[in-house]
Specification:
The chain is α/β, with parallel strands linked by helices and 272 residues long. Helix content is 34%, strand content 26%. Helix 4 packs across helix 5. The protein is globular. The relative contact order is 0.15.
Length: 272
């Protein structure tokens, strides 16, 4: 579904990611992880044509993204940002914006078919219950559900998400990740998501790519990538990686400095 071949991208003449290559299969839940500044969001923006790639190719559904007509691209790829914009419209109206790529020339009003699809997407994301509520009156979790519903209304094959759980509590994080995994399984949707939370990435992603300093340090299944030696090398912090007793997936535990020193029989810093 997505092939990234030796891609270099950035802003102006400043290179942020360089020589990145990987593939994402159709119907796969793929995570981009890594420290702040490693290039995750820049790479996602290159996928969406928000910024041009300086070198290399990005192939979506068999076509170079720069050769795909805009309307076709919007019917194939949908994007969910970190924060859904606070627009002055109801959730129902906001989700219907996802149908714009399907409007015919000189069509200004959505059809019954468009409304049916928007309703279906709101029901899928559990946002139908607040369809008449203004977007700017929603909680953070509700806004993200509305944002995903709008993206799904585009009927995409590839869904790109930039840290959609970043500002949410654990209840909403799990709800959104469960929803996305359900969409992958039931609709054969391909999901590529930027994530900071290594435990969410481990638990939900089929495969992950760990970025560091603008390149891919390691890619594979969570069990292959989320290893304590790898995490300590890239994040420069001491961790313990165990297995989730229920799922068997890797689970990262942080180790505070004072606990690390005590475990090694060393004196704690005095602050003098």
């Amino acid at each position: 579904m997505l092939k990234v071949r030796d891609v270099t991208a950035g802003y102006g003449t400043k290179v942020i990611v360089a020589g990145v290559s990987f593939e994402v299969k159709a119907g796969e839940f793929f995570g981009l992880i890594g420290p702040n500044g490693s290039g995750k969001t820049t790479l996602l923006r290159a996928f969406t044509r928000e910024i041009p790639s300086m070198r290399g190719e990005i192939i979506i559904d068999g076509h170079n993204i720069h050769t795909i007509p805009l309307r076709t691209f919007a019917r194939t790829v949908a994007v969910v940002s970190q924060v859904t914009p606070l627009v002055d419209m109801t959730v129902g109206e906001f989700v219907l914006l996802g149908r714009l790529p399907y409007f015919e020339n000189l069509q200004f009003i959505e059809s019954r078919h468009d409304r049916d699809i928007a309703d279906k997407c709101m029901k899928l994301t559990d946002s139908y219950r607040f369809r008449n509520k203004p977007v700017d009156k929603l909680s953070g979790g509700e806004r993200q559900l509305a944002g995903i519903a709008r993206a799904l209304a585009q009927e995409p094959r590839l869904l790109l998400l930039d840290e959609p759980t970043a500002h949410l509590d654990i209840t909403h994080q799990v709800a959104i990740m469960d929803l996305l995994r359900k969409l992958v399984r039931e609709m054969n949707l391909t999901v590529v998501m930027v994530l900071h939370d290594l435990n969410l990435a481990s638990e939900y992603c089929d495969r992950v790519a760990l970025l560091s300093e603008g390149g891919i340090f390691k890619a594979g299944t969570p069990a292959q990538v989320i290893d304590y030696k790898v995490i300590e090398e890239i994040y420069k912090t001491v961790v313990v990686v165990n297995k989730n007793p229920i799922s068997g997936k890797p689970y990262v535990l942080i180790v505070p400095e004072d606990e690390m020193l005590k475990s090694r029989g060393m004196d704690l810093p005095t602050g003098n």
